[in-house]
């Protein structure tokens, strides 16, 4: 019913008009990529590939060492629960308002308007760019680890291996036109993940049994401990979240919400167990001396460690493609790259544009190869806002009339708490980068 304010203008109609004008200003293009074609099981493997990527080999050092046993274990379990909850909120809004929102920024733009559309896209771009940069650092670290196993001349430095990794990632990105086309590669990724996780687990157990008493105390001064603890909280968030859930959900078959919930439950049950195992065992075996790349700490046969590092390198190449796909989709859609992936125009476009994008990623990776810093800063400035702050506030705004007062209070508490955490984690990460910048030069051989 229209409520008149005395000047002949109805409040409800005015509000609707303003909202419609704001939302209509956001132009939502049809995607050039394939959507609505994948089973929930395939999407579950996409999510699991992200959570069990080679980043998992660093969590003993970047999460457990700064937090210690009790806070570290509790933190990982709590982060799992709240990440599943926040992701489920976003998944349930996929068809909000009678339309399907296949991009995170589309959903934010529909709910808030043009400014939120642009801010969300900027946050997501930063998030995915930094994740991809970290993947290239990981891939380069794996290649260097293989080199060190067979040579001690130190002629080849980490930046060289990062450059090689960037080139291989670009070749893979050019060859796979869109996210749904991964298919068989997701199975390959799962096998590769199991190889380096099992090797790291078994060799860590062996080292842990044979090693003397380990030091599990949190290193550093009181001030350092405070900052590293805050930074580790950002790493916890980073470990479980993609920052591109609507883009992944866009590939799933109808019914999209119930199928996505199945995929999420698969990710946060079967998917997290290998990650827990290798993280806890790595910390148990090496304590405060755990490396931020676990395969650098373990002792074992050369060929076994080489196999694990090769697997980590190849799996990283596949995983990077997942997190680069929103940028690929944006560019392909903007320039109308449709049809056969092997068409001359389409192939040359992917070579030039995707190759150029990953060249920039590779340059940044070689310039500042501080993996732990990337994880902390990414979690602070983009993963926290996208996964927790925005997810809770969008759900609050979209379902406002259907929520009880207690439910509204719960979502507001989440928004405020994670807003403060994001700010604190950003300060901590920037401090960590400043400290590391004094220790390492650009193009450092770490």
UniProtKB/TrEMBL annotation:
It is a multi-pass membrane protein. The chain crosses the membrane at residues 39-58, 65-86, 125-146, 158-176, 182-205, 263-286, 306-331, 351-368, 374-391, 412-434. GO terms for cellular component: endomembrane system. The keyword Transmembrane helix applies. Residues 38-429 form the Amino acid transporter transmembrane domain. The keyword DNA repair does not apply. It is found in: Endomembrane system. GO terms for molecular function: symporter activity. Its main location: membrane. Belongs to the amino acid/polyamine transporter 2 family. Amino acid/auxin permease (AAAP) (TC 2.A.18.1) subfamily. This is Amino acid transporter transmembrane domain-containing protein. It comes from Salix purpurea (Purple osier willow). The lineage of its organism: Eukaryota, Viridiplantae, Streptophyta, Embryophyta, Tracheophyta.
